[in-house]
Amino acid sequence: MLHQNPAVNRLLWLLYLVLTAGAGILFYRVLFRPLLPLAAAFLLSGLIAKPARALAGHTHLPQGLWALVLTVAVPAVLAVILWACYRFFAYQMRELIAVLPGMLANLQERLSALQDLYFPGKIGDMLPRLQPPALDLGDLADPLGKLAASLPDLLLTAVFFLAATVLFTGYRQEVLSFLRRQFPPRLLQAVRRLRAYLREALWGWCKAQGVLAAVTFGLLLAGFFFLRIEGAVLLAAMIALLDALPLFGAGVALIPWALAELLLSNPGRAAGLALLFAVILAVRNGLEPHVVGRQIGLHPLVSLISFYLGWRLAGLAGMLLAPILMLILVKLREWGYSRLWR
After folding, report:
1. pLDDT reported for residue 218
2. Is residue 1 assigned to a domain?
């Protein structure tokens, strides 16, 4: 309810915003992890509900049985895919580890020579010792002990996730009807509009970013093969993923790498990496307006603030979710469901 005094009205809205933000942070800190398996089970049930009904109709077997089969099959297929990726990239990682100590030692020598040339006797031995982290089997004892202690909790969570997914699949319509009855019609209308908008805008944006990441990965892979760089597939995948993240880009990795190669007296490879970065930058800037098309609709300054606050509050997950939450607030304001600002 709005107050007649505008100053009091602004104060009330500010208090509402602070309380809402505090409730969101409290929910993330306290309830997010316990409710995560339940939310994941509900989302997975939405994916397998229709296939389970279709299979039950064609085979005359109970829908609950097919829900159980699909609940086990979908994570199992994902696990097999992840394991195959791990085995493939582990081989690439071993190639990198084999050449990394020598490369870091040469770089350390070059940096020391530059220090002696330009700063003799002034800064002493202040250069960092560039060496790969030593792997001590004793360091694995503590993580393995924690993993063993958490096995009962992991097993209980897995059983709960399995049972919840099966039950959500069988009683999905009843659960949705119950949830709809708990909220006023105006709020349900806003949720439906937001769901339709986010499905169209964000899904299209994700597909466009996937296309751009694939193009970046292809260019990186071709460039690394041409430059004869070990572990080319793994490095291309890592830099393409970095390039897809907000506030980052391929230059975060390629520019320091090119400078290091220049210090190592590899001007050809340094020039190749710099040229590769220029090509990726030109291709991405040329493709992005056509591939991405309509953006999600946030002002660049608002997006920047959302990314930063999300990163500070919740790390990478917060950096990805904060702009979506801000977009929801903007759309609710545009559609007249909220008056948080004028």
Report:
1. 92
2. no
